[in-house]
Amino acid sequence: MTQISILGCGWLGLPLAKKLIKKGFSVNGSTTSENKLSVLEEAGINPFLVALESESVSESINDFLAKSEILIIDIPPKLRGSNADSSYLSRKIFVEKIQNLIPFVEKSTIKNILFVSSTSVYGDENGIITEETIPNPETESGKQLRLAETLLQKNQNFETTILRFGGLIGIDRHPVTFLAGKENLENPDAPVNLIHQEDCIKIIEEIINRSKWNEVFNAVAPFHPTREEYYTQKAKEQNLVLPKFSLEKSNIKKVISNEKITNSLGYEFRLENY
């Protein structure tokens, strides 16, 4: 039985772990909350309390990684915006967390890493964005993720696949709940680039099943209405106050291509989820 360690059993990591267990994998899962250890255990996950800091890593990290062949890293930088005052220090802290983790991975049984990243590493590039597009992050979280990607990709002790998700949505998570009732929202005609939690999980499954390592994948549904069209419709469906968009048209026409992931994995998105 192949064992997988999932660093970060949150919104995506927990249901992913449950699905992998159903598929016959043994799963070690980490959390930073003691209260959540019982939740993981009840789900059949081997629970570990792991705190990844810029200066240290929990002693439990060795046991968390022990006997696993695959490590899935799903810990967001938790920083938004592009405030110059916080840029360097915050970016450095996240990257140091990954730097501190790597030596423990190197001496473990881990052969492959799947790093959950974001299409924010491309910034506001216009046109069709593919995996060949040179990343040009503008937000701090995008910059942190790109630096972390590079650290892992350059390490020869394991093979890393980078999975760049678009905007995350799910049954209990949708951007329209934050946009409802707001006014003068920017970029009304910019296309949306979204991915549902269910597709996220299935794509990760396929990467593991097909051993697609040392790769970069953009994971976004082939569904790109404008922001104004999409969020207005979703607000109506959920009986929310309609968001109001700026009359100024934007120059941002970024469309993330999923051609590689559909061709390489043979994956078909469930568009009814969108």
Automatic annotation (TrEMBL):
Residues 3-76 form the 6-phosphogluconate dehydrogenase NADP-binding domain. One of its GO terms (cellular component) is cytoplasm. InterPro entries: 6PGDH_NADP-bd (IPR006115), NAD(P)-bd_dom_sf (IPR036291), NAD(P)-dependent_oxidoreduct (IPR051783). GO terms for molecular function: aldehyde dehydrogenase (NAD+) activity. This is NAD-dependent epimerase/dehydratase.
